[in-house]
């Protein structure tokens, strides 16, 4: 039997969102926003892939694209639990394989924090009980999805980040939800390399755009 807190939470959820799976839109058969069938289908595809130093779990399309959008743009914060379940094994495989010393989540702007109420990557890492270090995002920027041109994306995040960490001789992992053009990652990498010698940078994302993989 549901206690009062759980009952209120469930009622509010049905008021704010429909009772359908984020992926297939069929009626949910479990707590959360992804049905059992879709979750297990995604789990079968959830293994570590890479393009050079960029590691990822899924291709950024169809169901995965919708899940990530709902998670960070539609305030479906509980999707983090399912995302953590999906990426946990490949993520920890990467940490061990590459002997990662420091994990850095991509910071979001103050404006995005006000919009969402949380940093979607930090929250996910917290669920995975992973320690991480922060760098600063010193400027607000336009939403990257509103910029289709690669040069405009690069300009949008140029000189946006500030690092005060000593990362010399460290294996560093930058973590983001999606890599599309790689502009954000390149901007962070440039900032980290300015003041740190012999830094080895790898990247992990939940998903990666197919055009980035193929280029």
Note down, in words, how this protein is organized.
The chain has helices at 4-16, 36-45, 62-73, 79-97, 110-116, 120-127, 150-156, 183-194, 210-214; strands at residues 49-51, 54-59, 102-105, 136-137, 161-162, 171-179, 200-208. Residues 7-15 have low confidence and may be disordered. It has 215 residues and is of the alpha/beta class. It is globular and about 50 Å long. It has a single domain (18-214), classed as 3-Layer(aba) Sandwich (Rossmann fold), CATH 3.40.50. A 5-stranded mixed β-sheet has the order 1-2-7-6-3, with helices on both faces. It has a two-stranded antiparallel sheet with strand order 4-5. Helices cover 43% and strands 16% of the residues.
Give a quick precis of the structure.
This protein is of the alpha/beta class. The protein has one domain: Rossmann fold (3-Layer(aba) Sandwich), CATH 3.40.50.
